[in-house]
């Protein structure tokens, strides 16, 4: 067992979390304990859960791709009509154990949008770990729609099928954003949705997002995954927002 000293307040969602990292040896341990001032966040390998989750991920991704393929084809055509070019956008993200993988998304921004990102950094309106602004000039007309409905995330079903992601897990960030986050969130596969995606999303602070990722790592089970999936569906369709 390896212990990581991370100081937080007693509340899960309140307090300053010291960013820490661990070495490769710690990653290979079967159990990692993150000590806090009032409680411990435990990581344990759960081989049966991992196998069931992988089967669940494959079934969900294949089923969703089969059902949603007509919608995805229409979205791809609309993207190319709005701003001609590849309808699918790829980007390096940090996955489990720090491995870099290519994430797939429907392109919601004009081509070469990444090149003007630095010019817009001063206008960042997100309290969390990633860059966001309400009236981002890089977003296309169709981009506003697919972002609002989270349709832009659907190509990540391919990442799930490939085993690079899961349906549920901490959201993967680009390397420079993950560099400002603790490594313990990389103990599990990143996901299409997570606790903070359905519990405040980008209105949460970085510390709150980290705390919820750690809570998921500790709580993770098929029952928890199904609960988050249901809440994600309700969130997307505006029926409810937990």
Properties at a glance:
disordered N terminus; two-stranded antiparallel ribbon; alpha/beta; globular; 242 residues
Could you explain how this protein is built, in words?
The structure is a single chain. With 242 residues, this protein is an alpha/beta fold. The chain has one domain. The chain is 38% helix and 14% strand. The protein is built from 8 helices and 7 strands; from the N terminus they run βαββαββαααβαβαα. The protein has helices spanning 24-28, 47-82, 117-120, 141-148, 156-162, 175-178, 206-219, 222-236; strands spanning 2-5, 31-35, 40-44, 88-94, 100-106, 166-168, 191-193. The strands form 3 sheets. It has a 3-stranded mixed beta sheet with strand order 1-2-3. A two-stranded antiparallel ribbon has the order 4-5. Strand 1, helix 1 (24-28) and strand 2 (31-35) form a beta-alpha-beta unit. Helix 2 packs antiparallel against helix 4 and helix 2 (47-82) runs antiparallel to helix 5 (156-162). It is globular and about 45 Å long. The model is unreliable at 1-39 (pLDDT under 50).
The average pLDDT is 80
Shape: globular
- Helical segment count: 8
The helix/strand class is alpha/beta
The helix/strand series, from N terminus to C terminus, equals EHEEHEEHHHEHEHH
List how many beta strands DSSP finds: 7
Helix proportion: 25-40%
How many structurally independent domains?
Answer: 1
As a percent range, the share of strand residues is 5-15%
Distance between the termini: 35 Å
Largest sheet geometry:
3 strands, mixed
Radius of gyration: 18 Å
- Order of adjacent strands in the largest pleated sheet: 1-2-3
**Poorly predicted tracts of residues:** 1-39
